Each structure stands twice: as structure tokens, then as C-alpha cells.
């Protein structure tokens, strides 16, 4: 008896979607062979999907965004596929493409070596601030939030570094929580409790959106007592003491510095690729792949390795883009795997086409927000309806967990490309 495994590293938006797709549309089509079983195995450090999208509100207040709304147990969402679905709580530490195995350190302290017939890398990225990343398990992140919220209560000065959506949303949530909801016509709070400063490296907020929308965001931030400093980067930060609640000195690229009770680093992303061979990565440390087929094609990678989600070089990121990418990577995986198992030449590829239209939705506090969808500017009320009221939890959390979006494999036309022979074997 042997088992052929589709191994998925990372159990967040991309990894879980890839697992549902594999269970629904890959396993049923694999050749039935005497003594061979197939399974889908997901490796993830936490047992729970973390609804990272809601982190700006969750970090600010557990009354407004309780833990029960941001953590969702993974395994129960796959009971329909037991025993073909397996979950391993741990982290991948090494990939051996020659032996087609991945080393995994489990939370129990075991070292596993998991063989794969096909490998999907979906390990995403971490943030410099611990507020926006579930690095280990739910309990650890809840502790981070508890400690942060205890400090936030008494904070009089807060600096947020980074003028992207994470910085803007977090500054908005925190400012509104501390300074209150503004009056209907007020352009700023009368007696703000805290001075909140958002430091933006660019000349405008929200790089993906047009400048006019960035200006609206600034106005909404001002209403809840947050000032924006433009064209300035945070170049360093250091605690001014070792005691609990010590201030932080935030050094800026213009040579000035700010002292703050709390500094939140919302700049940039760090791809979770430290466990992969350096030569598989691009110059941003993302996994380099064929931008059409999402195969990892470095010669040392060997056959049947794919990348999905924000860790891939093919994408500018975001959950919506995954709906375009997951079916592509998984269809190509299926084509390659069937050819490998049958000893035949694979058929045509499915190709990924990104949607590069201006699309981003950014709540600013619990009432306002800015954004655009498919190139059309959204009114603040629409941003609230889509995202600001509950960070899309009601609309998307359970369907995401269950993989509802991937019930059908979707229409596609095979493309015969020169890469096909190169990437399968
Ligand atoms: C505050 C915030 C708000 C956001 N809001 C939005 C939004 O409104 N809309 C939107 O589209 N996007 C939003 N994003 C971006 C969105 O969260 C990402 O696009 C999404 O999380 C990417 O999913 P992913 O599965 O590729 O990676 P991740 O969500 O980063 O998940 C990667 C998973 O892999 C695990 N992992 C890491 N290393 C290993 C390893 N060695 N072995 C095994 N597992 C590993 C991680 O623990 C994690 O579970 C937001 C991001 C942040 C931080």
C-alpha cells in the first residue's frame, strides 16, 4: 500500500483554498491504481485560520472584535474529506527536492519528513509588528493583543509607520477608539485623548489607489484625530527604557524623531520563505515562479512544485487575486500529476491573468472608509457596508473556510506552452 500526497505548506487563505480545490477537483480525477491511495496534507503552525483582514480592529479592542470572530478551527472545515485530508500542526523547515520530501517541525517537538507527489507553497508573509501576523498559535496572538490593549488604554501618543492599507486602517481604528467618533460636521475631535501620527514614506496614502482617494483617507483620519506626515520614512525605533510602558523613540528619514507611548510598525511585508533554497526566490524574497502557470521552475526545484497566495512572485497580493490563481496552479498540478502517474505527456496549461484594475477597500474607523473596485471609486457608505462594519467576517469567513468559492473548477481553455515539458516529470 502506498500513499501519494499533495502537500500544502501554509494553512491560511491560499493554502486552505488550494486544499479544497485539490480535494474537490484533483483527487477524484487521479488514476485508480491497486494499492495506491491519495491524500491532501496541510502543514500550518496554528490549528486556526486567522482572519488577518480584521487585525486593525482586533488589535485595538477585543470588545469590538472578539477572538471568536478572528480565529476559525481548520480541521472541522475538512471533515467532508476525511481520511483523504490530513492536517499537521507545525512548520516546514526544509525542502529536499531530490528526495521529494519536506522536513516539518511539529508543535509537539517531533521532526517529520513528509514525502510529496506534488508540493504547493502557500506560506504567505509576516509583518514587522506582531499585531498583524499569527506566527504560532491563537493563544500567543491573543496574548499579544491583551498586552497591546492594556498599554493602549493609557497611551497619549501613538505613531504608526506606513501609509499603506494596514497603516491607514490601524491608525483609523485606534484613533477612533481613543478619541471618539466625530460629530456629524466636525473635521477633527474637540478634545482628543491621544495624538496619533501616521508616517507615510510616499507623497500620498494608499499606493494602489489614486491620489484623490488618498486625500479622502487623510480627511477621514483627521476627523478621528490622526495627522499624516508625508514623504518621510521611519528609519529606526528604540525603546527609551526597559520598564513596562516605556516610550519609544521613532527616528525619521528627515533627521527628526518622535517620542511615542506606542509605535506600530506597519511597513512592508516579510515573505515566509526562510526555509526554501535561496535560488528559488526573487529579489524580494518571494518564491519565483512562471507568472502564467505558477509552477516553480528553477532547475533545482524538480517537478511538481507550485506557489499560491502572497508568497508568490506572480502576484501583488490580496485575497481576491487568489480566486484567479488557485484554480490555475491546481489545474496545472493535476495535469502534471496525472501525466506523472500514468507515465504520459501532460496536456495544455491553464494560465493566470491578474486583474490589475484599481481595487482596494479601506475602512477608517467604524463609520467611514475609502476605496475603489474595478477602477470605480466607492462611496464611504459602500466601504462601510463591504468591509468597515465587520471586516467581511459575516460575508466571507465561513465560505472561505469551507472553500465554497471552489465548488466548481471554472471554465478554462488549455494553452500549449513551451514550459510544459520542462516543468513536469
Ligand atoms: C492587517 C491586514 C489587513 C488586510 N486586509 C486585506 C483585505 O481587506 N483584503 C485583501 O484582499 N487582503 C487583505 N490583506 C492581505 C491578506 O491578508 C493577504 O493577502 C492574505 O493573508 C494572503 O494569504 P496567504 O494564504 O497567501 O498568506 P498568509 O495569510 O500570510 O498565510 C500564510 C500561512 O502560512 C503559514 N506559514 C508560514 N511559514 C510556514 C512554514 N514554514 N510552514 C508551514 N506554514 C507556514 C503562516 O503561519 C500562515 O498561516 C490584509 C493583510 C493585513 C496584514
Automatic annotation (TrEMBL):
Coiled coil: none annotated. Keywords: FAD, Flavoprotein, Oxidoreductase. Residues 6-312 form the FAD/NAD(P)-binding domain. InterPro entries: FAD/NAD-bd_sf, FAD/NAD-binding_dom. The keyword Aminoacyl-tRNA synthetase does not apply. One of its GO terms (cellular component) is cytoplasm. Pfam families: Pyr_redox_2. One of its GO terms (molecular function) is flavin adenine dinucleotide binding. Belongs to the FAD-dependent oxidoreductase family. This is FAD/NAD(P)-binding domain-containing protein.
Amino acid at each position: 500500500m502506498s500513499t501519494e500526497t499533495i502537500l500544502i505548506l501554509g494553512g491560511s487563505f491560499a493554502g486552505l483554498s488550494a486544499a479544497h480545490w485539490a480535494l474537490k477537483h484533483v483527487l477524484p480525477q487521479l488514476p485508480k491504481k491497486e494499492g495506491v491511495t491519495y491524500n491532501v496534507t496541510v502543514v500550518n503552525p496554528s490549528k486556526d485560520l486567522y482572519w488577518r483582514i480584521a487585525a486593525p480592529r482586533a488589535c485595538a479592542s477585543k470588545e469590538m472584535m472578539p477572538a471568536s470572530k478572528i480565529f476559525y478551527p481548520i480541521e472541522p472545515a475538512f471533515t467532508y474529506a476525511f481520511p483523504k485530508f490530513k492536517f499537521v500542526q507545525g512548520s516546514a523547515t526544509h525542502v529536499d527536492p531530490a528526495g521529494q520530501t519536506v522536513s516539518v517541525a511539529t508543535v509537539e517537538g517531533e521532526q517529520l519528513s513528509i514525502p510529496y507527489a506534488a508540493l504547493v507553497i502557500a506560506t504567505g508573509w509576516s509583518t514587522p509588528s506582531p499585531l498583524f501576523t499569527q506566527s504560532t498559535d491563537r493563544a500567543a496572538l491573543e496574548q499579544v493583543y491583551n498586552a497591546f490593549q492594556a498599554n493602549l488604554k493609557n497611551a497619549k501618543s501613538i505613531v504608526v509607520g506606513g501609509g499603506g492599507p494596514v497603516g491607514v486602517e490601524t491608525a483609523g481604528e485606534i484613533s477612533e477608539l481613543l478619541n471618539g467618533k466625530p460629530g456629524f460636521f466636525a473635521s477633527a475631535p474637540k478634545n482628543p485623548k491621544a495624538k496619533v501620527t501616521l508616517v507615510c514614506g510616499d507623497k500620498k496614502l494608499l499606493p494602489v489607489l489614486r491620489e484623490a482617494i488618498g486625500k479622502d483617507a487623510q480627511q477621514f483620519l483627521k476627523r478621528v484625530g490622526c495627522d499624516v506626515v508625508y514623504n518621510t520614512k521611519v528609519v529606526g525605533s528604540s525603546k527609551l527604557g526597559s520598564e513596562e510602558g516605556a516610550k519609544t523613540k521613532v527616528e525619521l528619514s528627515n533627521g527628526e524623531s518622535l517620542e511615542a507611548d506606542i509605535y506600530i510598525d506597519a511597513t512592508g511585508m516579510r515573505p515566509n520563505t526562510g526555509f526554501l533554497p535561496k535560488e528559488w526566490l526573487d529579489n524580494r524574497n518571494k518564491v519565483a515562479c512562471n507568472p502564467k502557470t505558477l509552477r516553480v521552475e528553477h532547475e533545482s526545484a524538480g517537478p511538481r512544485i507550485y506557489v499560491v497566495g502572497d508568497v508568490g512572485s506572480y502576484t501583488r497580493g490580496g485575497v481576491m487575486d487568489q480566486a484567479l490563481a488557485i484554480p490555475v496552479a491546481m489545474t496545472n498540478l493535476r495535469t502534471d500529476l496525472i501525466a506523472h502517474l500514468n507515465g504520459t505527456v501532460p496536456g495544455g496549461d491553464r494560465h493566470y491573468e491578474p486583474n490589475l484594475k484599481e481595487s482596494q477597500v479601506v475602512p477608517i474607523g467604524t463609520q467611514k472608509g475609502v476605496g475603489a473596485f474595478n477602477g470605480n471609486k466607492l462611496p464611504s457608505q459602500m466601504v462601510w457596508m463591504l468591509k468597515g462594519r465587520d471586516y467581511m467576517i459575516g460575508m466571507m469567513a465561513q465560505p472561505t473556510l469551507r472553500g465554497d468559492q471552489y465548488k466548481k473548477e471554472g471554465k478554462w481553455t488549455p494553452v500549449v506552452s513551451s514550459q510544459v515539458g520542462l516543468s513536469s516529470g
